[in-house]
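Input sequence (782 aa), recorded before submission:
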Amino acid sequence: MENEKENKLKEFVIENKLDKKWWNIPVEGLSIEELKQRHQAFEHLSSSLCGKDSHWLGKDGGGSSSDPPRRGHCDDGKLNHMVSSSSKIPHTVEETMDVDVQVEGEECQRTQNRGKAIAVDATSGVSSQSKKVMKVVVPRSGVWKHFTRTKESRDRCICHYCQKIFSCATKSGTSNLQKHLSICKEYQAWLISQGMNQMEINTDGNLKSSEVAESVFREASNELIVNLYKPHSSRTATSDIVEMYVRKKAALKNMLRTTKQRVSLTTDIWVSQVTGASYMVITAHFVDATWQLKKLIIGFKYVMDHKGQTIATVLLECLAEWDIEKVFCITVDNATANTSAIRRFHRDFSDVSPESLVLDGSFLHMRCCAHIINLIAKEGLTEVGENVLAIRNAVQYVRSSTPRLNAFDLRVTTGRMSRGTLPMDIKTRWNSTFLMLSRALQFRTAFDRMEAEDRLYNDYFLEMENGVKRCGPPSLRDWSAVEKLKRFLIIFSNSTLVVSASTSVNSYKCYGEIVTIERNLTALANSFDPELKVKASEMLQKFLKYWDGIKSVNRMLILAMVFDPRNKMQFAKLCFEKLYEKESLESKAMLESVGDLLRTMFKEYNTRFRGSTGEASQSNHASSSQAPPESQDQGTDRMELVVEDFGYERMDCVYKEMVAEKGEDTRDGLEVHLKEAVETPKLLLGVEFDILAWWKVHKMKYPVLAEMARDLLAMQVSSMASESAFSTSGRMLEPYRSCLTHYMIEFLMCTEKWMHADIKSFKHKHLMIEASRSKHEVEEGG
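Predicted structure, token format:
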């Protein structure tokens, strides 16, 4: 019998052309495809040796017909070795495949009589074990495309993108893995990378994704090498660019006209160092229908001078060119000409339409907060110029050559200080000076050791510079003065980062930053340190020059802060109490004036919203309800008469009487919103609250307030958006391109910015689509 089974096994091996690796090579040496093939071979061999139709085992499934019945026990050692080896397949990265094979049991058996006890082998004395189960587990959740179980435990898995390990017990589900994908930054970046990286312009002048095959790219490269096509002339390129500008401008004008969008403007003037010509850039900011903040350059105009009348004229002509009839505010720097320009603009633009300005343009002029902070910070750097210069010269010496930098690094290492870069500053940018001084203070000990040990370092400060001995090395007095200066600059640096953002919403943060600066300067002005007290007092006077005790701050900044659902009026009340003392008359007056202004603005928007949409006012939105038809009223009256005749009381009738006695709720949407509790969202570390998304969700509940929020949150508190265009224009109007006409410069500037905006919008939409698709797949799989 044993020889017969051995021969059967050999015939099976020869027939299926299986070599020795199927039996001798361990599982770790085979690929996933070979593992699948070996499993199929084992199944086929198992059914051949142990199946019911194996007549050569005897009618009982044992040896011959004369042998005792053994219920199909297979005692072939090789077969047992093969099956047991297949059950030890490790869980590797190949588990990301859709099939996960698990083998339970060690021997192949069959049960002849269901429900009876397993017989004992008369020859070997070993009872047959439970039936081997070939279990195929197919992961149903699509989340397993992005996670892999670990080798150590099947209840732990690792993310393919951020390599973080998560629990994935079978009974717990995959909801935690789905939530991780929604916040995994590496996964979001991977989604973007899976999109089409190349863009092309279609016949409509819009950007679309494109994919170029390798063969097409090689063919095009060869054609360029042999110069098959004649390059087009500059005249043709000019014509194409102008046509593209006109086409894209028409599309943008149509969008603004269709949505009847109210915009906030920022403007500034730039003088080219190459040609000496002055250009005025005008940027429009608004929140579109999808509640995304948009920035659109609508003009890059050549101006003859910087007078207020010229600025106002260019503004009016640009808005008329774009058919813009609604403006919320205009953000400019603190030049006197800008104040005159806004006054002229207000006078002329108010005649365009009754809805051209908000609150009759009383808050049209917005001063650039970043410019004011910049002036105050420069005031603080003036008196400590020599102290800063000594440290700047020390940093310049260290960074001037590699040997000097290595000598400095040696002092840092031996002094057990934290390593880091030592940046040089730009003299005209105080924030870069702040970063340089902050890092230099951290390496103060290393500079002191350089002065004590390095002769070349000391000789460097003995050299003459412009006929005067070079300032330095830094002394104790220099370090002390700079350390005190840092306490001021860190306040301005943090506030500048907040108010300078032009691609994200920051209007609701500005007033809090202004109060923060005033409070800290006031505290430092009351310090016991005489030098610190004098410096803080000087900066505070400069601060109050532009914001007269916070009273000259544009009130729209306070309203924007109120429209943050996390703040509302509570945060404004706190700011007033900190500025004017708690329960003071000034604090109460400020709070009352802001409340009155908010209600006045709400009434104006409510009237316009009701007139433009034809809908009912939001004043009774919180409690409005449709009146029932007349027939139902009559039927109800008849029912009540019948009820009264019967002499018993119905609860619905009692409730109607109670409502009639209390009267209708006359609270408007503004009052309902302010009376509700403030939002306290639980955000992950580093994730900022999306205020536009909140108003997008609640715009149906507060339609008028949502329109107010759209304009207030699109407001810019600095002119950085317009100034950022000057860096591009500086690269465009270089010495080799100084002959460009003023019109061509505007065409190039605007078209480039519009195309960049299209690319950004396309990537955002593509990311949203991919994220939504991935979420849908994960939900279907779970």
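Checked by second reader. The chain has 29 helices and 14 strands.
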